[in-house]
Amino acid sequence: MTMRLDEMNSDEFQAFLSFAIKHFADEQIKCGNWKPEEGISKATEEYEKLLPEGKNTENNHLFTIRDENQEVGMIWLAKVTDEKGFIYSINIWEGNQGKGYGKKAMQEIEVLAKEFGLKNIGLHVFAHNQLARDLYEKLGYIEKNIKMEKSL
Asked: Alpha-carbon dihedral of residues 139, 133, 62, 2, nearest 10 degrees?
C-alpha cells in the first residue's frame, strides 16, 4: 500500500460535498435525530455553516486519500483553536474498506496535525458505527462524552 493524502481539487470537493451531505443526513435520520423529509436541507445548512468558502474555508484541510493514483476515500481536518483540531469526516469508498486505508489515513492526519501545531484531535462517531468506534479506540482515541436517549 502506497497511501497518501492529497489536497482535494475542486472536482473532488464537489463530489465529496454531494456524498457528505447525503451521508450525514442518512446518519442523522438513522439515529432518529432528524425526520427523513428534513434530512437533506438540514445537512446542507450544516455544511454551509462549516464550509462557507467551500474547500477554501480557512483552517479546514480536505484531503483525498489515494493509493498510488486510485482515489480510495477522503478525510477532513479542521483547526478549531491553535492547539485543537477536529476530524469532521473520514470516508473510505466502497470496495476499499477493510484494507487498512482508514487506519493509515488517521495516522497520516495526526502527522499533519502536529505540523499544523495542533496538540490534540477530536472527532464524532455515531453510536451505531461500531467499526469506526473500534478503529478509533485502537488508535488511542477515548470517549469524552456520551449522549444517551430513550424513545418513548
From this structure: 50
Q: What is the rounded CA–CA span in Å between residue 106 and residue 127?
A: 19
Amino acid at the residue 137: E
The set of residues, in sequence order, having a beta carbon less than 8 Å from that of 20 and lying 6+ positions away, is 43, 47, 89, 91
Q: Quote the pTM value.
A: 0.87
Q: d(Cα 110, Cα 141) in Å, to the nearest integer?
A: 12
Query: Which residue matches cell numbers 474547500?
Result: 55
pLDDT digits (tens, 9 = 90+) for 15-30: 999 999 999 999 999 9
- CB contact set of 99 (below 8 Å; sequence gap of 6+): 1, 72, 92
Q: What is the CATH number of domain 3-138?
A: 3.40.630.30
